[in-house]
Design a protein that fits this description.
The chain is mainly beta. It has a single domain, classed as Neuraminidase. The protein has two helices and 28 strands. It has a five-stranded antiparallel β-sheet with strand order 1-11-10-9-8, with no helix packed on it. The protein has a five-stranded antiparallel β-sheet with strand order 2-3-28-27-26, with no helix packed on it. The two termini are 33 Å apart.
Amino acid sequence: MRFPAPLPLALLAAAALAACRAAPAPAGRPAHYPAVGVVPRGDADFNALVPAGARIERLAGGFAWAEGPVWRRGGGYLLFSDIPKNAVYRWSDREGLTVFLRPAGYTAPDPPGGQLGSNGLKLDRQDRLVYADHGDRAIVRLDEGNYTRTVLAARYQGKRLNSPNDLAIRSNGDIYFTDPPYGLKGLDHDPAKELDFSGVYRLTPSGELTLLTRDLAFPNGIAFSPDEKTLYVSSSDPAHAVWMAYPVRPDGTLAPGRVLFDATSLVGDARPGLPDGLAVDARGDIFGGGPGGVLVITPAGRHLGTIATKQATANVAFGGDGSDLYLTSDTLLLRVRTATKGNGW
């Protein structure tokens, strides 16, 4: 189904001009960011991707729950969400931190809960920001010229989506997204929940919305393999904390998936976090927020090692020249220099 009408967002233009700017940094890559840890020595395969001794840099902090990073190459900056603060922030070495968009999600009075803002962010082939609007329970596209948005999907078979969480855009323009109930105060038991499942969907450029699978209770992060023949979806269910791999059929639908890696045994207080947002490098390795930090998993499902942030890390994105890995880690924005490059660089 299609939702073509652009909806003006009052206050967006003015709010986008508001800045919470950090002290400007010199051009290039400053060395003054404090380290919150270093990457330990692992086996040769892990350290070939994430060198031992690489610094985990603290770029910014003070967020309520940072999420959904995406690097805009044309502008040379990172965009990321803070869901409870209903904001999208912009960050770069040169400019520091500024507010890019507020409100980023829920705009009505009497908010139903604390998950008001945007979650996963992506850029389409026209460099337009498309995002999972957690608060308004929709997939939307932003027009940055006049700060209006187009709602691309908000209902399935006449029922409101739960709260779209993360998305991946295929090279043909199809948007694949996850729809767990995290934006609803009562989760699966919330009276506002209209669907009796959590799904993974595909939205075509023509507006056709297709349910691809409903076999996960809490589908979360989502990304394609470099050849787009496999769709990876994380499950943030503590009882079934896995990364799934789904073969993509020629028509864009999914064949039955397999468990790529099961992290259920790693879940616990000593390793905060659950399988969450993920990014894929040029050779197909998965970098996914999970128990204890960011797990690095091969396409064959081998867990090479973990970038240990020691706190819940919601999502990751490659940026800069393609080798910088940006981490939205609870209240912090972090960065690690890798020895690989993100898919597409």
